[in-house]
Every structure is written in structure tokens, then in C-alpha cells.
Amino acid sequence: MLSSNKFSDYIIIDSLKKPELFFRFMREEDLDIILRIERASFSAPWSKFYFIHELHVNKNAFLLIMLHQVRYEEIILGYTDLWKEKNILHMANFAIEPRYRNKGYGASFLQFCMYFGDRLSIETIKLEVRVSNDSAIRLYKKAGFQITSLLKRYYIDNNEDGYLMVAEVKNSIKLLQVLI
Ligand SMILES: CC(C)(COP(=O)(O)OP(=O)(O)OC[C@H]1O[C@@H](n2cnc3c(N)ncnc32)[C@H](O)[C@@H]1OP(=O)(O)O)[C@@H](O)C(=O)NCCC(=O)NCCS
To answer: Is 163 a catalytic residue?
Structure first.
């Protein structure tokens, strides 16, 4: 179901319904584009230094990007940083390039993450989201995430509360198969 061949860092999941999308591990050379998306997406963006730490130091991190190809050029549509914390996958970062939002790419990337987690024998995936982030919360709920707790003043840039949201991987795979 999920394979990556030894000549590349692309990850192939046969069950995904979108053959035009490609997924691979992030490389340092992607960081200029990733940082542009990051800064356009978050009020407290991660720094280049932090991404490099995630790429090279954090052994529990899976930095993944979603892309499509136009002629022979790769266009990065979005990225995520998944932390494997024992038997839970923690989605520490997730963004879609602003020009490509509201086209279903966020849902497709979540679907990929669920299959990726399943391949690692992960049963549960969790994330934190700002209470004001309506579009993300709607997407996560459609993908089977449920709010399990309120994180008071979780975001230090503006003291905003967050929600902890949790999904069961196998349930989300089923829901997203219908949604996409
Ligand atoms: C949250 C985020 C990842 C969602 O990505 P996205 O690609 O826009 O997600 P989708 O396109 O799958 O879904 C978004 C909306 O588009 C709609 N949509 C999907 N396909 C569509 C299409 N072909 N035409 C029109 N609308 C469509 C969905 O129904 C959904 O609508 P809703 O919000 O009314 O429910 C993106 O907005 C983002 O990167 N935000 C900034 C970073 C961020 O907040 N990350 C999350 C941190 S926890």
C-alpha cells in the first residue's frame, strides 16, 4: 500500500485517489519555498533554523511535502511535520500554499497523512489548532478529528486558546475515502 523506492524519497500510496499528487520527504533545498508558505500562513511562523532542526536533529520528525508536476517542474502545494510520539502521530505543522487553498488539497494531504500513519502502525493522530482557525477546524472535523480539550492561552504570540484535536487513523481513512 505504501512504498518508497531506494532511488528517491518519493512515497507512493496506491490507495490515494489523486494520481496527479506526489508526496516526498522534505529536503533542505525546499526550504525557501516552505518558508514563504510558512510566513504567509502563520502569525508565529517557524524559522529556517527550526526547520533545519526538524530535518536533521529531530529523529522522531517526518517532514513531508505534497506536490504536483507542471511539465517537468515540481510545484510544492503544502507540507507537514509529523512527530512520532510512541504510538501517536502528532501533526506539529500543516499548511497549504495560499494560492492552492479551497481546492481539496488540504483534505488530500490529510488522507495521505492517515495512510502514512497507518503504515507506521499508528492508531491515533493528534494536533493543536487555534480556536479562531475556522477553516482548519472544519477540515479536521470532516476528516474525523474531534476536539478533546481546550488548551488555555496555548499560543504565546497572542495568548490565544487552542483546541487539542484527535482522530483515529482507520476511521479517518474511511471518512476521507468518501469525502475525496
Ligand atoms: C487549513 C488549511 C490547511 C486547509 O487547506 P485547504 O487546501 O484549503 O483545504 P481544503 O481545500 O481541503 O478544504 C477547505 C475548504 O475548501 C472546500 N473545497 C474543497 N474542494 C473545493 C473545490 N474544488 N472548490 C471549492 N471549494 C472546495 C472544502 O469543502 C472546504 O470548505 P469549508 O471550509 O467551507 O468546509 C489551509 O487553509 C492552510 O494552510 N491554512 C493556513 C495554515 C493553517 O492554519 N494550518 C493549520 C494549522 S493547525
So the answer is: no
State how far Cα 46 lies from the chain centre: 15
Q: What's the one-letter identity of residue 108?
A: S
Q: What is the mean pLDDT of each run of 10 residues along the chain (180 residues)?
A: 61 89 96 98 97 96 95 94 96 98 97 96 98 98 98 97 98 95
User: Residues 128, 154, 160, 168: which is the catalytic one?
Assistant: 128
With the most atoms of ligand 1 within 8 angstroms of its CB, the residue from 38, 110, 132, 135 to mutate is 135
Element (H, E) at 148: strand 146-155
pLDDT value, residue 6: 45
d(CA 167, CA 76): 26
CATH of the domain at 55: 3.40.630.30
pTM: 0.96
The whole-angstrom separation of Cα 115 and Cα 75 is 22
Question: How many folded domains does the chain comprise?
Answer: 1
Q: Check if 105 has its Cβ closer than 6 Å to any atom of ligand 1.
A: yes
